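Page 47, continued from p. 46.
Same chain as before, 320 aa.
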Amino acid sequence: MRAAALFKSKNLNMLYWLPFIVAGIMAVRFGLEPAVIFCADKGVISVPFWSGISDNPWVMGGVLFLLSLGVFAVADKYKLLGQRTALPAVIYALLTVGIVCRYGINNYFYAAVCMVLGIEALLCAILNTKQNASVFNFGMFVTLAVLLCPKLVMLLPWAIVVLPFSGRVTVKDTVAFLIGVSAILVFTLTYYFYFGELERLKDYFVEGLLNGSDFWKLFPDKYWVFGLLALQLVVIVFYILLNFPAIAIAQRRGVFAMFSLSLFLGSSLFFIPFNCQGVLLIVFLPLAYLFSLYFISHRHRWAGIVLFLLFLATCVGLII
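Result:
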């Protein structure tokens, strides 16, 4: 299939076509269902100045493209996939465009931006072990994502686990990470103290974490979509683990970080209550890199075509 071959290409022309693809999908999606659903998942930190334009299709399409471009830039800058490819941006945009159309721009989107910056800081820390600024940034952005969306609380144990596996195990690394976490916490505490609501900060966090219902009950008609996604993920993880020893050490650490991130985030869907499926904007970040790694490196033509078709079916199911 030419489309599957295009996915494996090192040509970056897909980046130029991506905004038009996103715009076309959004036009069809809003033609079928023009309403945007309000996501009631609240955070300790909010971004109120976006509220007036968060459901504007032009804004939604533009910011999704920019976020997808950031996903590509991180992988390209740190050679996470071993070659230059637009695939992470394309996969992330296709997986998330339906989520953005359904819920507009909300705290989960801002948390996704923080996590792209956090992943960038982690990959920088893996490659450059002689400076600690990237470790500080990693702790800061992960903490900011959790304060934006308390339901992403599993990001904190993931960050604690992934840091030593990334080769950052010294006392200085630990201190830099803790200072990054503390900087955001102190800023937030100061803000709430200044406005006289410090005593309610804990209540806001607990409410944001526990308010909601079972994630899988939100859209029971999407079970088949997540079933397809789980099937693809099993195949991809098996393939990556089978070829893991052949991957360069620095790239191996980055791939492990993405695999562990998907594991921590995916597990949270089973025991943390949610009010919307906006959390998928963050869940799909590591999946975009794992899917990309498989599509550019698999050697079995028919297996790749079948998985590619399953991926397209999954995207369609998430959009409609």
